[in-house]
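Incident log, support desk, overnight shift.

02:14 A customer reports that sequence design results differ from what the structure should imply. Their input is reproduced verbatim below. On-call engineer (initials T.W.) acknowledged and began investigating.
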């Protein structure tokens, strides 16, 4: 029988719904309570999610430390480069304010004036199909602020710029392999800061941790509309800027050396070349250069040679090694300048040793043997000392050991010393390999009273946030000889320059005594493993110390395999073309430093960098100095002479602004005045003739950066 009682059924359903609802409420309440207590759902922190929803942060960028020369002139600094981009799509544009390239013909014609691309090449970029935007290859990258500003003033629709932090090397070619460079890691071009710049070689690499700063951060609360919440806490972590580094390099000498090296390099195209000027009393490197080299900002030439030749390249030193052999023999009491020996050839177990004159000069004194650079004389001296004793001296002078420069890939060199012939060869610089840094370090012992100084290229580091300085003190790394031995060795080395038979007679400089030793070292052919023979397949060198009685500078030059086409110049003649101008200039600066205080019309140069051009000119009004401004900017960024340096009235002062470098009117200037502009800009000037400027190939006010070389014609007043 069917149940006909609907009321009873409804009551059961109601009871079921009631208890079901109670159960659901219990579960829901429990879940809510659980969430309230735990503060998370499915493992996600709800409070953190809310905080993330309304919390914003911004990066406070740190600066990479600046590298300065010894006088405080910038050598490497942070900058911003700009990459040119053309927007082709009209997707984001409107007719009143187009955001894309409208007139491609006009755009290409205008951009041609600012980047190294022809109108046709630019049009080809702009006419590409199915692209929203295009870039302009390498020619459109690393643009300066002045170039960017110039393009912006043309008001070209659709032309925009991407900013990228970069490293600026304002002097161009300037000890480039020693200083190195910093760049963004490969592939990083967007959303980067200066802290992403990484040292790739040289000092930039060796001191990357010191130079690299740490970005800060600002954390704050915003509402759903993007406004900062009133009275909310702002958490700020200040950025830590990288430390600044001051080099030992003197910009005046460095730029001058680079100019001389460039002239010789262009003229003779050597396979490799180095020149270094060092203070033997401190080990401070005043100027150093190598070829091949590169422009630090543009990287032009970097593909020719990545190697820092000063510390990474090893070579046989040749007869400059005789400086150390002589000092060791004097120290051991076996060098008698008045004793005689038979020159020409010497037989040694395993072979024979020959002088560069195969027939020799007969029986001559050891002093004459030094002057003539006799290999036989020095092999005899090594025998008199004994192989073990000579090896101990080589070790004491640091031969076969790194100088612990801190620079990447510093080589040790090698010494072949197993057999009598090998041992004798080392006495005149053959059969062993060295680095330029090793030789410079060893030479300081001769020029510095027996105390051997570590070569230094950093004078101090400065905390750029606090100004706290850390001075890099000169470091004595050994005393292989006594002061008396060093003085006597210098006296003997003068024979090389002043003896009528000396190999260094052409290294005399009027008004100064020079102690020096020349060298011509053989080179091993990498294919045959034998020495090259004949031609200019040698490493020509000189190590000169001046003034000889108390050296203040050592100039060490090496030139490998120069190309000499006219037959009138020798390999050593190429070395002299570097030596004479550089050593003369270095000694002139020394003399100026000694005499400048006694000048009645002396003027102490004030500091005018970091202030406006107008303020700088006003501060120099009463100094009786001849002021020239290079550049069209409004702030002075470099000056020559440096602040606190003493000059004399009517001398030319050159100031460089933060704008594009513009060519001054140099008519009537002296060569020295022109070289001041070369020093401060890092640009190469080529001189024709002697006297005063009568013409310049770049018009006044023209952009100096648009040309690689500037030619200046000089004439004497009589002409």
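02:41 Re-run completed on a clean worker. Output:
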């Amino acid at each position: 029988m069917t149940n006909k009682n609907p009321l009873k059924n409804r009551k059961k359903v109601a009871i079921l719904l009631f208890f079901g609802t109670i159960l659901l409420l219990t579960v829901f309440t429990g879940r809510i309570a659980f969430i309230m207590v735990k503060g998370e759902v499915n493992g996600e922190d709800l409070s953190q999610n809310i905080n993330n929803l309304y919390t914003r942060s911004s990066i406070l960028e740190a600066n990479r430390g600046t590298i300065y020369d010894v006088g405080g002139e910038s050598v490497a600094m942070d900058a911003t480069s700009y990459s040119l981009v053309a927007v082709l799509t009209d997707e984001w544009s409107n007719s009143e304010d187009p955001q894309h390239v409208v007139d491609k013909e006009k755009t290409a014609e205008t951009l041609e004036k600012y980047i190294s691309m022809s109108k046709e090449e630019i049009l080809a970029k702009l006419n590409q199909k199915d692209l929203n935007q295009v870039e302009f290859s390498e020619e459109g990258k690393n643009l300066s602020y002045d170039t960017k500003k110039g393009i912006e003033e043309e008001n070209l629709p659709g032309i925009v710029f991407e900013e990228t932090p970069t490293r600026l090397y304002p002097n161009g070619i300037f000890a480039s392999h020693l200083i190195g460079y910093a760049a963004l890691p490969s592939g990083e071009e967007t959303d980067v800061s200066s802290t992403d710049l990484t040292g790739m070689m040289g000092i930039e690499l060796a001191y990357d941790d010191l130079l690299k700063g740490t970005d800060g951060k600002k954390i704050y609360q915003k509402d759903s509309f993007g406004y900062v919440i009133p009275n909310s806490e702002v958490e700020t972590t200040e950025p830590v800027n990288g430390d600044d580094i001051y080099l030992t390099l003197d910009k005046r000498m460095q730029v001058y050396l680079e100019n001389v090296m460039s002239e010789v390099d262009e003229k003779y195209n050597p396979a490799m070349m180095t020149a270094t000027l060092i203070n033997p009393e401190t080990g401070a490197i005043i100027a150093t250069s190598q070829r091949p080299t590169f422009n630090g900002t543009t990287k032009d030439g970097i593909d020719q040679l990545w190697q820092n030749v000063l510390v990474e390249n090893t070579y046989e030193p040749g007869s400059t090694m005789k400086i150390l052999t002589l000092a060791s023999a004097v120290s051991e009491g076996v060098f008698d300048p008045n004793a005689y020996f038979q020159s020409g050839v010497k037989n040694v177990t395993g072979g024979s040793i020959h002088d560069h004159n195969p027939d020799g000069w007969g029986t001559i004194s050891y002093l004459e043997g030094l002057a003539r650079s006799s290999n036989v004389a020095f092999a005899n001296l090594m025998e008199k000392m004994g192989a073990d004793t000579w090896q101990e001296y080589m070790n004491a002078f640091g031969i076969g050991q790194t100088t612990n420069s801190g620079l990447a890939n510093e080589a040790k060199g090698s010494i072949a010393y197993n057999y009598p012939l090998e041992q004798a060869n080392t006495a005149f610089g053959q059969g062993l390999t060295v680095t330029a840094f090793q030789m410079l370090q060893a030479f300081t012992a001769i020029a510095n009273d027996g105390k051997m100084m570590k070569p230094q290229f950093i004078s101090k580091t400065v905390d750029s946030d606090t100004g706290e300085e850390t001075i890099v003190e000169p470091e004595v790394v050994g005393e292989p000889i006594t002061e008396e031995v060093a003085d006597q060795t210098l006296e003997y080395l003068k024979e090389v320059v002043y003896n009528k038979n000396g190999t260094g007679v052409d290294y005399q400089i009027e008004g100064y005594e020079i102690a020096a030793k020349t060298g011509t070292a053989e080179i091993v052919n990498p294919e045959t493993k034998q020495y090259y023979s004949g031609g200019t397949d040698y490493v020509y060198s000189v190590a000169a110390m001046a003034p000889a009685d108390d050296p203040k500078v050592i100039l060490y030059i090496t030139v490998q395999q120069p190309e000499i086409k006219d037959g009138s110049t020798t390999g050593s003649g190429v070395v002299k073309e570097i030596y004479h101008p550089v050593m003369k200039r270095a000694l002139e600066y020394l003399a100026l430093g000694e005499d400048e205080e006694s000048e009645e019309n002396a003027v102490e140069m004030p500091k005018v960098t970091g202030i406006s051009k107008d303020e700088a000119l006003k501060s120099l009004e009463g100094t009786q100095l001849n002021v020239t401004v290079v550049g069209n900017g409004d702030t002075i960024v470099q000056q020559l002479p440096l602040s606190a340096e003493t000059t004399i009235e009517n001398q030319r002062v050159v100031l460089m602004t933060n704008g594009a470098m513009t060519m001054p009117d140099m008519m009537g200037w002296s060569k020295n005045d022109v070289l001041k502009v070369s020093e401060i800009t890092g640009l190469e000037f080529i001189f024709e003739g002697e006297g005063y400027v009568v013409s310049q190939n770049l018009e006044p006010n023209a952009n100096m950066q648009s040309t690689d070389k500037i030619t200046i014609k000089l004439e004497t007043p009589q002409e």
